[in-house]
Amino acid sequence: MKYILAIVSSFGGGLLVGGAYAAFITLLRIFPRLLQFTNTKRYYMAYEYIFMFSTFIFTLIYFFEFKIIIGKIGAVVSGLFFGSFLGFLSSALAETLNVLPVISKKFKIKKQMGTVFIAILLGKVFGSLYYFIFKIGG
Predict the structure, then answer these.
(1) How far apart are CA 113 and CA 103, in angstroms?
(2) Which of 5, 77, 118, 137 is buried most deeply by CB count within 10 Å?
């Protein structure tokens, strides 16, 4: 009986955070911008299914503390995938929030915006690789 309040408040908090996250992704139109940025509009449903499936799987991993031993090669491969996804997602988010156009006007680097996008992507990829090699895979 003493755990009912904790269970109800935890469940309510989880619903609140999940709803806010879904609203954030939906209202900022992250996926349409990501699809426009990568020119892969025909894979819209695949993006949504992968997003839902990966959210569900990583929630299970977080709560049940799965240990997956993948070694350094697996860490490199997963780091490349995670880093690429985070790079594209953060680029789409930055583009949606008009951060990069403001920076390009401020620093007068409109012609080098492709290079800026690649630098953001590579930074996320190498950051993920570093994390997975030295924190998880190492």
Answers:
(1) 10
(2) 137
Taking the C-alpha atoms of residue 118 and residue 113, their distance in angstroms, rounded to an integer, is 9
Q: In this structure, is the dihedral angle defined by the CA atoms of residues 30, 31, 36 and 38, taken in order, positive or negative? A: positive
Q: What is the value of pTM for the model shown? A: 0.43
Three-state SS sequence of 92-119: HHHHHCCHHHHHHHHHCCHHHHHHHHHH
Sign of CA dihedral 38, 91, 27, 82: positive
d(CA 87, CA 93): 10
Instruction: Return the DSSP state at 136.
Output: I
Percentage of the chain surpassing pLDDT 90? 0
pLDDT tens-place string over residues 32-46: 777 777 788 888 888
